[in-house]
């Protein structure tokens, strides 16, 4: 009954044939309404963030461009909004408090705009068609959607005596949409009908399917000699009376770009620093990189290629650290220290400003040690490696074990003393 009434009104008011309007309705999945409760329609913004990224404060705006009314193309040079009214730009606003659990390293935050079908000053009943795009506000770190949707409004005359939802004798009986270009700006070859009903169907979908996707990835470009700019720090400390403080320890770095929002295979800059009199100083040499480092204005660095199938080996001695200042939040890294004879290793790992987690080799020497895969969060990230040398005396006895050896010797001495005492007593 609803569709029949709508089509009849359109025929009377707009001069459209019944079959033509029926086909138009079949071409889309409309949000439907009646004179008491007109059709509603919203746009859904989905903001995609790499895991451990803080939600930004952002407003996304959408533009409606007239296409046609009652199958007649809208000519911007001659037409006016009196025939195709202006639709107020809907917005989706993020206040920075939105959050959700990540899936596959990505946090997806959907948010609907207001009802863009409400409050429009329709001049008469008819079929109105608009293109909808997202306004590119050119905010840093945001990849704006290039999607285009064509939205159709079916506007009916209100029946006499049933005008609760009518404005100027008209109401929106249906709103439908289909996508013509995707988020990357590629033309959609097969028509993709979408339902703009707010809240979706409440079962398989929970928001309007008129969706624009945006990626937000925090990018950085800091100074390696400024501690507050260090996004990730991997440091080396060597301990023990006989430890070689000039010895270089090998670390294999494996890094991957964030799960969303970064194209290609980035090459990240690993600066080796030491603490100088006034703070961190870049000291990267061929000894650290295993080859000549790359030199730029901020100092030399070892390049870490995320597109390589092999890890990047960086060598550190006591008091040195690798720092990164150009990572995107959401980068995954793993640092594995190679096994070294006579040294046992431990590492304290901090992720996204959290509590440090200690990993060690249970006192075993000549054993490799890895941080395991870790995500670089927006807060502090570090891995502090410590290697302790098993101390050896000139006679070859491990001094680290001397207290235990002493206890064993004392025990044996006590046994011998008791035995001798008993024999002396028996002979007596």
Descriptive notes:
Strands 13, 15, 16, 17, 18, 20, 22, 23 and 26 form a nine-stranded mixed β-sheet that branches. Strands 1, 3, 4, 5, 7, 9, 10 and 11 form an eight-stranded antiparallel β-sheet that branches. The protein folds into three domains: 215 residues, Sandwich (Immunoglobulin-like), CATH 2.60.40; 163 residues, Immunoglobulin-like (Sandwich), CATH 2.60.40; 27 residues. Helix content is 12%, strand content 38%. The N terminus is likely disordered. The protein is mainly beta.
Question: Briefly, what is this?
Answer:
The chain has four helices and 26 strands.
- Distinct helical segment count: 4
Which series of helices and strands comes N to C? Answer: HHEEEEEEEEEEEEEEEEHEEEEEEEEEEH
* Cα distance spanning the termini: 123 Å
Low-confidence stretches: 1-24, 393-399
CATH topology of the largest domain: Immunoglobulin-like
Query: Can you summarize the main beta sheet?
Result: 9 strands, mixed
The counted number of beta strands is 26
Any guess at the CATH architecture of the largest domain? Sandwich
Shape: elongated
Find the structural class using helix and strand composition: mainly beta
Provide the CATH top-level class of the largest domain: Mainly Beta
Work out the strand percent.
Answer: 35-45%
Query: Taking all residues together, what is the mean pLDDT?
Result: 87
Number of domains: 3
Helix content bin: 10-25%
- The rounded Rg comes to 35 Å
Topology:
Layout: H1 2-14, H2 18-26, E1 31-32, E2 44-50, E3 57-69, E4 72-73, E5 91-95, E6 106-112, E7 126-134, E8 142-143, E9 148-157, E10 170-181, E11 187-194, E12 211-216, E13 232-239, E14 249-256, E15 267-276, E16 279-282, H3 286-289, E17 294-296, E18 299-305, E19 312-316, E20 320-324, E21 332-337, E22 343-350, E23 357-360, E24 369-370, E25 374-375, E26 382-389, H4 402-427
Parallel strand pairs: 2-12, 13-26
Antiparallel strand pairs: 1-10, 2-6, 3-4, 3-5, 3-7, 7-9, 8-12, 9-10, 10-11, 13-20, 14-19, 14-21, 15-16, 15-18, 15-20, 17-18, 21-24, 21-25, 22-23, 22-26
